[in-house]
Amino acid sequence: MAHSEGLPLRKIIHIDMDAFYASVEQRDEPAYRGQPIVVGGTPEQRGAVAAASYEARKFGIRSAMPARVAQQRCPHLIFVKPRFEVYREVSRQVRAIFARYTDLIEPLSLDEAYLDVTQNLLGEPSAIAIAQAIRHDIHQETQLTASAGVSINKFLAKIASDMDKPDGLYVIRPEQAAAFVATLPIDKFHGIGRVTAAKMHQLGIHTGAELREWSEADLVQKFGKVGRFYYRVARGQDDRPVNPNRIRKSIGAEKSFSPDLESRSQMTAALSQLAERVGQRVQEQQRGGYTLTLKVKYSNYRQVTRSHTQAQPIRATADIQQLGTALLHQHIDPQAKVRLLGLALSNLEPLPSEIQYVQLALDFDPSAESESC
């Protein structure tokens, strides 16, 4: 299964706040309740959606969508400016609740985290009971809802938390794991984005059972080293520990495109959206980075990266966009089509809480999100 021989199964919870930024705004402003709202930039700013309320999601509006497209889908959409200082404070409240139950907490962002409750502070044998208690505490203390997934590893817990949203609790038990993954559509696999899913569909892979038919060598040959990850999760296996000391080495975002981008204007517009997403994450984490890296993958799969380092940390979205665009125009092959663009800030300023263990962290965590892997 997803554990080492002779060792007990782990009990992992993934907690995901429901439409976090939008829910905070609806909590604090009664006029927004029951209304389709998005948090993020406006169409006039050529902004992007950072979060959408469930009322907005009914119109097909989702995170990272250009604000212009969101407004076209819902003309009466309400745009709300992000208040990251408020989101950070609520996130601190939620993490304090987690800390009552376990020391093994791995935050992924302001609104989600993994918890290992195999050995927990209450001596409670039931991970389900702990997840229920945490969700109750969050609602009581923040007036917000959270969804939880409970299973034997991070991959399954992450998928489970998305199965009964909003305000849900979903459990994948050890004896259910193999059958659950077998019937799971590839599009629902955490770590497989739209572009990779489309490629898998072309190869006749539509479910976990069909993915399981492929050898590890063939998956690596088709998808690169991430193929090893696909091979394991198709069998419900994920041995990654919940790591409370994980330090981000970069803050970034990337996106694959289908069809490929052909014009400079398309690439510049796409880069603008990526810069806004990176800027939002910088605000979330209150970080700055001295190095900005542009990643370009061409239609022939040739990949290049170009970086710029400066004396002062880069924080503002406008600076990220300006530097990224300059790197793009200086280094892009004007004759080539582009299938992926990415921006990442690295050489980050450490947070005070990281200083005590920064020398001990050996794991490498490129935190640029990808829709392709």
From TrEMBL:
Q: Name one Pfam family in it.
A: IMS
Give the reactions, separated by semicolons, that this protein catalyses.
DNA(n) + a 2'-deoxyribonucleoside 5'-triphosphate = DNA(n+1) + diphosphate
Question: Which EC numbers characterise this protein's activity in its record?
Answer: 2.7.7.7
**Gene Ontology cellular component annotations, sorted alphabetically:** cytosol
GO BP of this protein: DNA repair; DNA-templated DNA replication; error-prone translesion synthesis; SOS response
Q: Where does Mg(2+) bind?
A: D16, D111
Q: What is its main location?
A: cytoplasm
According to UniProt, residues marked as the site described as Substrate discrimination are: Y21
Location of the protein in the cell: Cytoplasm
Recorded GO terms, molecular function?
Answer: damaged DNA binding; DNA-directed DNA polymerase activity; magnesium ion binding
Q: Where is the active site?
A: E112
Highest taxon listed in the record's lineage: Bacteria
Q: Which UniProt keywords apply?
A: Cytoplasm, DNA damage, DNA repair, DNA replication, DNA-binding, DNA-directed DNA polymerase, Magnesium, Metal-binding, Mutator protein, Nucleotidyltransferase, Transferase
Which residues are in the UmuC domain? Answer: 12-193
Q: Which cofactor does it need?
A: Mg(2+)
Q: How is the cofactor bound?
A: Binds 2 magnesium ions per subunit.
Assembly information from the UniProt record: Monomer.
State the family it belongs to. Belongs to the DNA polymerase type-Y family.
Job of this protein: Poorly processive, error-prone DNA polymerase involved in untargeted mutagenesis. Copies undamaged DNA at stalled replication forks, which arise in vivo from mismatched or misaligned primer ends. These misaligned primers can be extended by PolIV. Exhibits no 3'-5' exonuclease (proofreading) activity. May be involved in translesional synthesis, in conjunction with the beta clamp from PolIII.
Q: What is this protein called?
A: DNA polymerase IV
Species in which this protein is naturally found:
Leptolyngbya iicbica LK
